Amino acid sequence: MWDCLDPVKGGVPVFFGGCNKSLEALDDMYYLYTETFVWKHATSSGNPPSPRDSHTCSSWKNKIIVIGGEDGHDYYLSDVHILDADTLMWRELNTSGQLLPPRAGHSTVAFGKNLFVFGGFTDAQNLYNDLHMLDVGDGPSARFSVAGDCLDPVKGGVPVFFGGCNKSLEALDDMYYLYTG
């Protein structure tokens, strides 16, 4: 299950997808109101992402962007879906240029008009160490994390990628800053 902060609801965490105890991929969405610790199921419309796990979810302007993940049947995804946080309407974004290879367990950071996608995997033998950029411009939105992501306020909003695991599934504790200016 992956989350991001809803830009419209004042930073309320939004959780989309994930998997249950039977490892069945899910496509439901919930808000967690942290002041009262109350969960609320969110009903959306449009063309939502298919059930998935190990995807990313990022907030950008008044949008929430979901990218990639695994469908629960060892099929890896690279699609991009955008949720308008005002209307709760989903749409799939048709991308162009060099397409993002399917992946799960990656990390994404929305920064300025760009969404950066780093790393991920498609199986134990195919771990990615690449960086892709999706220009979301003034239109659509972005998404998610397993290796970890945040913006470092001390360094002026520089995206930070940290952790994850290697091919042997050993936890990593390294950290990288991505200077974009």
From TrEMBL:
The gene is LOC110753347. Coiled coil: none annotated. It comes from Prunus avium. This is Rab9 effector protein with kelch motifs-like. Keywords: Kelch repeat, Repeat. InterPro entries: Kelch-typ_b-propeller (IPR015915). Pfam families: Kelch_KLHDC2_KLHL20_DRC7.
